[in-house]
Design a protein that fits this description.
- The chain has 174 residues and is an alpha/beta fold.
- It has a single domain, classed as 3-Layer(aba) Sandwich (Rossmann fold).
- The chain has 3 helices and 9 strands, in the order βαβαβββαββββ.
- It has a 6-stranded mixed β-sheet, with helices on both faces.
- Helix 1 crosses helix 2.
- The radius of gyration is 15 Å and the shape is globular.
- The N and C termini lie close together (7 Å).
- The structure holds inosinic acid (IMP) and magnesium ion.
- The site of magnesium ion (MG) has 4 residues, from strand 5.
């Protein structure tokens, strides 16, 4: 589990988050979206993103598990923390750290649409890793498209380590 190289410097991330915030401010003008951070990975991205949005927003979190200690999705999702706000009729924006196979995001979209009865459900991810996409999903807001192995830092972990790196790095192959 060694760092290979830095792929995104903190300044690049900062600038991209700022422009995503401006885009979301335009697109959600006149509404009060509920931003749902997907724990644990999205906590840093969400914290920076909400401060780049110039609108009233509500914030909540959900936690799902699929990876365990490995670098690959097990394919089955378990809900380990539900959001606490009443989301019926709300405009929900899901905020993820990274979308890989897409299984988690598809599951989340279904959960917020059907079980929580949100009015709209859109998706935002800091990183879109298309190379291992296993389901048909288009993410509405993407920070960066990166296809360079397993990534850590700025909230992203490998077996819970490296979340506190301010930049995004790739790891050496196992
Ligand atoms: P998916 O269901 O395969 O799209 O996996 C999505 C989840 O797996 C993300 O929310 C991440 O928490 C985790 N994940 C996927 N790829 C990476 C990676 O390269 N680094 C860290 N976490 C990852
Ligand atoms: Mg995650």
């Amino acid at each position: 589990m060694k760092i290979k190289e830095t792929l995104l410097q903190r300044q690049e991330i900062k600038e991209r988050v700022k422009s995503l915030g401006q885009q979301l401010t335009k697109d959600y003008a006149g509404t009060k979206p509920v931003m749902i951070g997907v724990l644990n990975g999205a906590f840093i991205f969400l914290a920076d993103l909400v401060r780049a949005i110039d609108l009233p927003v509500e914030i909540d979190f959900i936690r799902v598990a699929s990876y365990g200690q490995t670098r690959e999705s097990s394919g089955s999702i378990s809900l380990t923390k539900e959001p606490e706000l009443d989301l019926e009729g709300k405009d929900v924006l899901l905020v993820e750290d990274i979308v890989d196979s897409g299984t988690t995001m598809v599951w989340l979209q279904e959960y917020f649409t059907t079980r929580q009865k949100a009015h709209s459900v859109k998706t935002c991810t800091l990183i879109d890793k298309n190379e291992r996409r296993a389901v048909d999903i288009e993410i509405d807001y993407v920070g960066f498209q990166i296809e360079q192995g397993f990534l850590v830092g700025y909230g992203l972990d490998c077996a819970q380590s490296y979340r506190n790196l301010p930049q995004i790095c790739s790891l050496e192959e196992e």
